[in-house]
Amino acid sequence: MRTATADALRGALANLAGNADHEQAVERYLARLSAGEAEFLLHDWLLWAREDQLPPTLSQGGADWTTWLILGGRGAGKTRAGAEWVRGLALGKPPFATAPVERIALVGETLGDARAVMIDGPSGLMAIHPTGEKPSYNATRRELTWPNGAVARLFSADDPESLRGPQFGAAWADEIAKWRYAQATWDMLQFCLRLGDHPRQAVTTTPRPIPLLKRLMADRATTISRTRTADNASNLAPSFLGAVVGSYEGTRLGRQELDGELIEDRPDALWQRDIIERIRIREAPPMEHIVVAVDPPVTTGPRADACGIVAAGRTENGQAVILADATVQGVQPLDWAQAAASLYQSLEADSIVAEVNQGGELVAEIIRQVVPTIPIRQVRATRGKYLRAEPVATLYQRGLVAHAGQFPELEDQMCDFGRGGLSNGASPDRLDALVWALTELMVNNWSGPRVTAL
Questions:
Q1: Are strands 151-156 and 222-227 parallel, antiparallel or unpaired?
Q2: In a domain? residue 268
Q3: 405: which residues sit within 8 A by CB, 6+ positions away?
Q4: I need a surface site. Which of 70, 144, 210, 212 has the fewest CB within 10 A?
Q5: Could you list the residue range(s) of the whole structural domain that residue 17 is in?
Q6: What is the CB neighbour count within 10 angstroms for residue 161?
Q7: Are 331 and 307 in contact (CB under 8 A)?
Q8: Rounded CA gap, 251 and 239, in Å?
Q9: How many folded domains does the chain comprise?
Q10: Cα–Cα distances in Å, from 228 out to 71, 74, 225, 250, 378?
């Protein structure tokens, strides 16, 4: 039997043990299976799932639950667990459901993320169904429809109002720690869960210490599953395990991104998350001046530092607002220049502020290859990063800066930046760009766009 299904099953079984005797036993077993039997086994989630990837039953501890919170590292199998839960609900498969749940909400960070990860990803809903069960996707309606009539509809956390009106019997929320309007989207989702005897929701996310996640973890109606990247090692590329896991294991960033731990802010950091939360706003007011700051990397390639690209504006009453984080990594100079120029144009900014310590005038030349007429202010660091960041942190403490939405990676750097830099020793690329933008708008005396001639 050499069907694609049998090959996939062979690979899955071989991951359970790596010795020759086991592999021979697998081959003998597969030889006796029909293609249909092999496909059935391959898609039997109860056979392959780890305990942390299965939902708690009502009988466990005698406790009921409304939210199943799956906290895990990158590549730990969170998406597969969420997708299989939705599959079980839609098809009415025990122990997930005793009858099909006819309407299900799928909420991702953006519509693009929801489609790419929750629907079309390698562990998404389209990939995990056997023949005869697979749903069809209607891109216009943003709906998955199963052969039995069950429907799952996609939503974006960027648009909480889109959840006003529909009703569902269950929901799957992915990566809530990265949602731009986390609390507002979550609140709207709760009003939608009003079908059936006991509507429930699954949440799959790598944790960050945002208020919404902390509240969910403390809620008595939440049951928590934890999973680590290492738990799913047999399904991950050896190069990822060696390069990424090997490099970050044991660090603060590794504990969060690999082990799925909720890591609180450093006590010696210049920024604290509660301050950022207090000054967060949903939408930016009209801006008097806007700049896009660029902190170029020294090198290029997949392992190079990122190119920090952050946009900020200043209102007529003198408050600064962080508008966007368009930081890119592992790209060529023309690519990060294009990203910066695109953000400049989309926001109708006044100028680009570019650090030139490493690349000198070449930095401006690269940007001008993309947009020749773009106004560029070249800045050069004469003090260390911490000393440059201190006045900007003071602006936050005085309530003079607001964040228009969520900027997870940027805020993680801010709340992990102390006198010795980031705890993992990496370059604070996003933070550097933020500091340059706010220094230009708020620390230096602004008197209109200033352009340094080349």
A1: unpaired
A2: no
A3: 180, 181, 280, 282
A4: 212
A5: 4-42
A6: 10
A7: yes
A8: 19
A9: 3
A10: 9, 8, 10, 12, 44
The answer on 342 and 280 residing in a single domain is yes
The per-residue pLDDT string of the chain (454 residues; one tens digit each, 9 = 90 and over) reads: 334 555 555 555 655 555 556 667 666 766 777 777 767 777 788 888 888 899 887 444 445 899 999 998 888 899 999 999 999 999 999 888 989 999 999 999 999 999 999 999 999 999 999 888 999 999 999 999 999 999 999 999 999 999 999 999 999 999 999 998 899 999 999 999 999 989 999 999 998 888 899 999 999 999 999 998 888 777 777 777 776 666 666 676 777 777 777 777 788 899 998 889 889 998 899 999 999 999 988 776 666 778 999 999 999 999 999 999 999 988 888 999 999 999 999 999 999 998 887 655 678 888 888 888 889 898 887 788 999 999 999 999 999 999 998 898 899 899 999 988 888 788 899 999 999 999 999 987 544 443 333 2
Residues 231, 347 within the same domain: no
φ, ψ for residue 441 (rounded to 5)?
-80, -35
Burial 288-327 (b: 16+ CB within 10 A, else e): ebbbbbbbbbeeeeeeebbbbbbbbbbeeeebbbbbbbbb
Tokens for 67?
């939210």
Does one domain contain both 345 and 385? yes
Whether residue 88 sits in one domain with residue 19: no
* Number of continuous H segments (helices) and E segments (strands) in the chain: 17, 17
Residue 356 tokens, joined:
């030139």
